[in-house]
Amino acid sequence: MVNIVTATAPILTWTLRLLRSEVMTGTATGHRDPTRMCCRHKTHKEGTHMAKILIVDDSPSDIRFMTEALKGSAHECVSITDAQQTEATVEAERPQLALLDVVMPERNGYETLRALKKLPAAEGMKVIFVSSKGAETDVKWGMRQGAVDYLIKPYTPEQLLSLIARHV
């Protein structure tokens, strides 16, 4: 059996490093619009992005964790905290991949994915569920809804990047 402290140590180290950097750089207060964040950085030149990734999660800290993990990649990220804005964001941004939380207020990830499947702008967009709901039945249900993969929280930045690389 895996010791829980050993299994979560890399995630805790990453989170502490992230929080420490936010406090030191002054970004701990957030972005201009707390419901939309982007991980496009000045180090990326226009046109060099591999894929546009939409992150939908009601937790700003989970969004921050994902955007920090993607910071060094060439992917452009757009994130929202309200699942009810997903269709409008997909229409406007046309992402190639969505990282979608399952447990959210108002509308869960399964309902959100079903709504996206009816949206012409989402045609060809891949969806990966990212959730703390990790029971076998949850994963199977997510895949039956049309997700291409399922990432169980907690996870490491390396696991996230590996999964994204597999699908874009």
Can you walk me through this structure?
This protein has 168 residues and is of the alpha/beta class. The protein has one domain: Rossmann fold, CATH 3.40.50.2300. Helices cover 42% and strands 16% of the residues. The protein has a 6-stranded mixed beta sheet, with helices on both faces. Helix 2 (60-70) crosses helix 6 (157-167). The longest helix has 22 residues, at 4-25. The radius of gyration is 16 Å and the shape is globular. Residues 1-9, 12-38 and 40-45 have low confidence and may be disordered. It comes from Deinococcus aerolatus. Keywords: Phosphoprotein. The modification 4-aspartylphosphate is found at residue 101. This is Response regulatory domain-containing protein.
How far apart are the termini? Answer: 34 Å
Number of strands: 6
- Overall mean pLDDT: 81
What is the name of the CATH superfamily? Response regulator
Spans of at least 5 consecutive residues with low confidence: 1-9, 12-38, 40-45
Major sheet: order of its strands? 1-3-2-4-5-6
Under CATH at level 1, the class stands as: Alpha Beta
Tally the structural domains: 1
The H-and-E topology, N to C, reads as: HEEHEHEHEHEH
**Given the structure, what is the number of helices?**
6
The CATH topology name reads: Rossmann fold
Shape: globular
Biggest sheet, open or closed, and with what strands and sense? 6 strands, mixed
What structural class results from the helix and strand content?
A: alpha/beta
At CATH level 2, the architecture is 3-Layer(aba) Sandwich
- Rounded to the nearest angstrom, the radius of gyration is 16 Å
Q: Helical content, roughly?
A: 40-55%
Please state roughly what percent of the residues sit in beta strands, choosing from under 5%, 5-15%, 15-25%, 25-35%, 35-45% or over 45%.
15-25%
